[in-house]
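Problem: given the chain below (115 residues), write out its structure.
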Amino acid sequence: MSKVLKTKEDREQTALITTLKLKYKGLVVRQSMDGIPLQPALAVKLWRNHVLLKSYPDISIDYAAHGYNGLKIELKRKGTKLYKRDGSPASEHIAGQMQFLKRLNKSGNSWLGVS
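Solution.
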């Protein structure tokens, strides 16, 4: 049995990364495993070894341009609710992602949310 369970989100991320690498030779692109379902034993091992970072964006492009150190992309399923009616984040997970993206922005990274 595979240790990483492929999802539609994983396939879409892989397709985007493949396209970017083909179009821009030498581009350093990293896919986060944060949103990918893993078997429990593998997930624990990756968290302990700091391979997984909670709320890290789905895709990282390490390329300095236009005053930024890189670009981080967070993909969301079409129709994903980001905010409640009162303007607060729709879930703890989304709140954590928003905080992480703010930290990245302060360190010179740009970010993009895509649905």
